[in-house]
Automatic annotation (TrEMBL):
Its EC number is 2.7.11.1. GO terms for cellular component: plasma membrane. Residues 4-293 form the Protein kinase domain. This is non-specific serine/threonine protein kinase. It is found in: Cell membrane. It is a single-pass membrane protein. It comes from Populus tomentosa (Chinese white poplar).
């Protein structure tokens, strides 16, 4: 009844469809319907429930309930009305009202970093998302975002050099989306918190450049490497989304590019922790004497 027999579809996941639900008391929800013909299963749903019951944070979409009756596998999640970050920056409809401003992009980058830091710093065991991407980020408004879709999460991580290590994942069990996946993870199958740091770096490049994670036959990280590793401010301007018309703060841009350079480095141990990224972005968001330098 709440979904009107699954009438209004508002999203598509790797193993599910998402429908709008009217809860009848002025509230709305998002019903995630896990589908077996899309590779979904009762285990996938229960794994996601297990993760969502462990976490509670303003930048994470909240679990409101779930159902395993009459052959259905359903999650009832908090409804976030303004679609995804992917829709906002990569579709005609998303850009039709106005272009996402630089200050909004910076604020969203901070919200995403906070959302990714929480499952690592507070949850026990550590939660690795494994499918960080712009289509999993729901916009509350142009300045605030919530992270969603924990269906591919992993509890705990692989320590190959430890007596308590788990068996590395096989190539067929590697989860993620092309363009965002850590190269080390692809090569070893070992899931550690640093694979989400890699994906976050790609998200930053999306916000900076306004481009999708894949550019032709190469990833966005590869496509922007020459520009973003330069020390020349004018070269950085070539990476910036042209739709911004140069309206970006130079010092803030340099911070985001610096993080985007560290996040995907080959040596995963050298990547920053998400908490460090949160602190760095917060520091650069303090009032600047010259708000627009480009």
């Amino acid at each position: 009844m709440a979904t009107r027999d699954f009438r209004i579809r508002i999203g598509v996941g790797a193993t599910s469809f998402v429908y709008l639900a009217d809860l009848g008391d002025g509230r709305f929800g998002a019903v995630k319907r896990v589908m077996e013909d899309r590779g979904g299963s009762k285990k996938i749903l229960l794994d996601e429930v297990s993760v969502l019951l462990r976490i509670s944070h303003p930048n994470l979409a909240r679990l409101m309930g779930f159902c395993l009756e009459k052959g259905e596998q359903l999650l009832l999640l908090e409804y976030v009305p303004n679609k995804t970050l992917f829709d906002r920056i990569h579709t005609y409809h998303g850009q039709s009202s106005c272009i996402l401003s630089w200050s909004s992009r910076l604020s969203i980058a901070l919200d995403i970093a906070r959302a990714l830091d929480y499952p690592r710093s507070r949850a026990d065991p550590t939660i690795i998302h494994r499918d960080v991407k712009s289509s999993s980020i729901l916009l509350v408004d142009d300045d605030h975002a919530k992270f969603a879709d924990f269906g591919l999460c992993k509890l705990g991580y692989d320590r190959p050099d430890s007596e308590t290590s788990t068996t590395p994942a096989s190539p067929t069990s590697i989860k993620g989306s092309f363009g965002y996946i850590d190269i080390n993870y692809l090569n070893t199958g070992l899931a550690t918190p640093k694979i989400d740091v890699y994906s976050y770096g790609v998200l930053l490049l999306e916000l900076i450049a306004g481009l999708k994670s894949i550019q032709g036959s190469v990833t966005l990280a590869e496509w922007t490497e020459g520009w973003r590793k330069s020390d020349d401010v004018e070269v950085w301007a070539n990476v910036l989304d042209p739709k911004l018309n140069g309206n970006a703060n130079l010092e803030q841009l340099s911070v985001l590019i610096h993080v985007a350079n560290l996040a995907p480095i080959e040596n995963s141990e050298g990547r920053p922790e998400m908490g460090q990224i949160v602190d760095r972005i917060l520091t650069c968001m303090e009032p600047q004497p010259y708000p627009h330098l480009l």
